């Protein structure tokens, strides 16, 4: 009986060990399945992380590119604003020059209009006639002086032709601008 009991106990322990082994085998399979599942999830997460990191780097490059483009655009806008300002100043200067010339022309027109009015015309004509007669008198006087000089020159030529060459050198020229050296 002891033997049978030991056999029963042994069989019971074997059964229990087999049951524990089967249960541990199932648990091992469950754990292995869970490990495979977790490894798959980990791989998916790593791939997702790599994609997100790539997208993040791409976004950073885009941000840097956009910042550079914005900087260039801002510089261009500032340059165009300066050019527009310069153009406005140039146009303003030209407009001021034009306005100044226009005012001068208007002023000249007013002066000419006041000079050549019907009321002043007789006085202006009398003044012009007076100046004309003065110029005629001066012209007549100059013609007389010119005629006298031509006559004196002719007399000197005639006189020089009749006098021998040695004595001609000693004579003094009486015409203005004639000097003996």
TrEMBL record:
Keywords tagged on the record: Coiled coil, Meiosis
Pfam family, one: SYCE1
Coiled coil: 7-90
Signal sequence extent: none
Entry's Gene Ontology BP terms: synaptonemal complex assembly
Domain of life: Eukaryota
UniProt keyword Transport, yes or no: no
Family: Belongs to the SYCE family.
Name by which UniProt lists this protein: Synaptonemal complex central element protein 1 isoform X2
